[in-house]
Design a protein that fits this description.
The chain is α/β, with parallel strands linked by helices and 286 residues long. It has helices spanning 3-26, 39-56, 68-76, 87-97, 145-157, 162-165, 175-183, 203-206, 231-243, 248-255, 271-281, and strands at residues 27-33, 59-65, 82-85, 100-107, 112-113, 115-120, 135-138, 168-171, 189-193, 209-214, 218-219, 222-225, 259-264. A six-stranded mixed beta sheet has the order 2-1-3-12-4-13. Mean pLDDT is 90; it is low at 18-25.
Length: 286
């Protein structure tokens, strides 16, 4: 083999290796906490991820994990490249693995939402101060912003110790189950993300409850990436999520999660989340 042939051969090898490297970098894994939703969550997210793939030109594999702790753990091990985080699990993951939120979801027309305490319409409970010795329904222990951390923070800020001042805490797994638990009278009070009260499918339960306390506005759940993910990939992902609502196919995909679209995430928006997290965890180590 003469010199020219060797050079051509080396160039071909380098091009092949470069192509393989680029392909490998484009194989991204997106993680979503499934909790107890399982296949329903997968089916709802899959059309969105397919649209993000088409817009970004990146290959993305959707995977479900059991909770936010597992999502954060697998991102740290680089098994997952980016994931969908509820606000408080996001700030916890940000401190542990230095991930970065790039977009927030828009739901029912807003990227923000509130948590509320609900009771039956005929309940004598009118405020958080009336919750002593009552049964409280929450969603998932230490894995939900509006169904665990924020309501506990609100109780502690009202000088109510959830462990000692309540009769019992019931974990229902889902916000709709909290709504049903309160409407059926199984629990005296529950904490839910308030936009579920806007869902027409929940009307028969909504008619049986009233809201007695509200949180501050909270930033919505975010898509966060590993800090070491390439700038090019992050830029493509962010632009794809921001643009997904611009097409009919994209809007149909978003509707599977009752999303209207995504907006850019800013770290400053999560200041209130840090406050609630600090309040929720106050005294837990003592």
């Amino acid at each position: 083999m003469n010199f020219n042939h060797k050079m051509i051969f080396l160039i071909i090898i380098l091009i092949m290796l470069s192509s393989l490297s680029t392909a490998a970098q484009a194989e991204l894994v997106f993680g979503v906490p499934a909790k107890k939703a399982g296949i329903d969550m997968y089916e709802a997210w899959l059309p969105i991820i397919e649209q993000v793939e088409e817009i970004s030109g990146l290959k993305i594999n959707l995977t479900l994990v059991k909770d936010h702790e597992k999502l954060s753990h697998d991102m740290k091990l680089k098994k997952i490249d980016f994931g969908y985080f509820s606000p408080i699990p996001y700030v916890m993951a940000q401190e542990k693995i230095n991930c970065k939120a790039i977009v927030m979801r828009v739901k029912y027309g807003s990227p923000y939402y509130k948590t509320g305490f609900i009771v039956k319409t005929d309940s004598p409970i009118d405020s958080i101060d009336d919750l002593y010795a009552k049964t409280l329904a929450l969603t998932n222990q230490r894995d939900s912003t509006s169904g665990y951390f924020v309501p506990l923070a609100m109780l502690k800020e009202a000088d109510i110790d959830p462990e000692n001042d309540l009769q019992n805490i019931i974990y229902s797994g889902k916000h709709i189950n909290v709504l049903k638990t309160v409407s059926f009278g199984i629990a005296d009070v529950g904490a839910v993300k308030l936009y579920i009260l806007e869902d027409s499918q929940n009307e028969k339960y909504v008619n049986q409850i009233k809201v007695i306390a509200l949180s501050h506005f909270l930033p919505g759940s975010a898509v966060a990436v590993r800090q070491d993910l390439s700038e090019a990939a992050v830029s493509k992902l962010k632009n794809a999520f921001l643009d997904i609502s611009l097409t009919k196919e994209g809007r149909e995909a978003l509707a599977m999660m009752n999303f209207n679209g995504f907006v850019q995430a800013e770290h400053e928006l999560y200041r209130i989340i840090y406050r609630y997290l600090e309040s929720a965890e106050a005294g837990e180590e003592s």
